[in-house]
Amino acid sequence: LAQLFRPLDMLGMVYRTIRQGLIDMAEMFRLLDEPQEVADVPGAPALVIKRPSVVFDNVLFGYEKDRTILKGLSFEVPAGQNIAIVGPSGAGKSTIARLLFRFYDPWSGRILIDGQDIAQVTQTSLRAALGIVPQDSVLFNETIGYNIAYGRGDATQADVEAAAKGAALMPLIERLPQGFQTEVGERGLKLSGGEKQRVAIARTLVKNPPILLLDEATSALDTRTEQDILATLHRVSEDRTSLSIAHRLSTIADSDKILVLQDGQLAESGSHLELLRRDGLYAEMWARQAAEQEEFEEAAE
Ligand code: ATP
């Protein structure tokens, strides 16, 4: 009897796999649809950036009419500074990133880059100014070189090499018999999560955007690779304006300023030391993560 059922089990698995595939596709279409919610105003000029500052000025926003997510949020990232956004899950951290890319417009309030309202400039020029290093990067079934150059249409081999160096990818590329010409992705060389992220960092370096958005890994536990990647990210963002969405506080302690978001509002802001001294939400989150880290280390011994 068991033998009779085994093929049915298999069928069930195939069904689940297909269904998951359809869900993923639906998700993708939903994401692709989002940018169409906003349109360029007629005759919109391009964003011109001399000093890449970012300002959220009393931003009110929600995805649905009756549920406000950002409740009159105001903050400033001065040009060249590295700012981290932390806060409990669902506080609205990723929403800030989506609004900065203008996937949605605020209900009221304004978002300014170098003094220009991002709703009044072309979306092409806005997105050219922003670089994002996501947690999960997608690679094309192409060569590593192509995947890096994709950041900018007219990138030269010298640009690609400089970016690979900046993203600490050279040790990997030098090990490969075909170097930059090595095929990666489904049919080619399979890269690890960390290596893929380095390719994404190199892609961003080729693009060379004045403003960087970093979406740091959610995993609560430190690993050597993650530490290395973070060190690379921090080096890359040093002389740029950057916003890091951080889940682990240990990685952002040296930011110029930390914004603590709670329930769509700024609960606190300041440097790591200022916030610890304040003994509020940040200090509490810091103590909790330190305790978790200790537990993890004890368990690992
Ligand atoms: P996390 O740390 O868990 O990633 P977050 O602070 O980044 O959380 P957001 O992703 O900004 O939180 O979400 C804020 C709120 O908005 C959440 O309550 C979430 O359920 C809601 N939300 C996010 N995206 C959508 C969407 N597309 N439609 C409706 N609600 C959404």
From TrEMBL:
Range covered out of full length: 306 to 606 of 606
Protein name: ATP-binding cassette subfamily B protein
Compartments in which it is found: Cell membrane
Lineage of the species this protein comes from: Bacteria, Pseudomonadati, Pseudomonadota, Alphaproteobacteria, Sphingomonadales
Residue stretches making up the ABC transporter domain: 54-288
Signal peptide range: none
